[in-house]
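thought: fold this chain, then report.
action: predict
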Amino acid sequence: MKKNPPRYLHLAPEAELPVLDALENFKAVLVVDVDVLETVRWDISRWLVESGSKYVMVWGKDAEQWHESIDDAHLEATNYEDLDDADVLITTSHEDDDLSEAFWFAQHRASHPAHELHDTLIVHIAEAPRREEIEDEFHDA
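observation:
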């Protein structure tokens, strides 16, 4: 399976959410370095679902709350229907892991029952970007 290099996206809290063109059936690693308002967390959760993410791994502040809001956003988007494998969104919380462990999991264990996930999007929610540092840690994991 050919894996593309990860894409890094920095989001400042309450920043406008970009359109994610050229990504489809992708996995996302949400790296949360700052406290985020609940309404913003919901907006980002819905955005990840609407953008086509099929697997979301959450690491950082309030990881379990993020995990739950992404699951709930997916249920909301699918009208709480039973889904076949192709429509499932998998979420995991890595609150007790080091970031390198979450990145290792993203590279070696995160898979979907119905889709090849060639693309990984690292969504870094922080006041300031740390692209090089985070990309290096991802590659070293």
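thought: worth noting. The chain has a mean pLDDT of 94.
final: tokens above.
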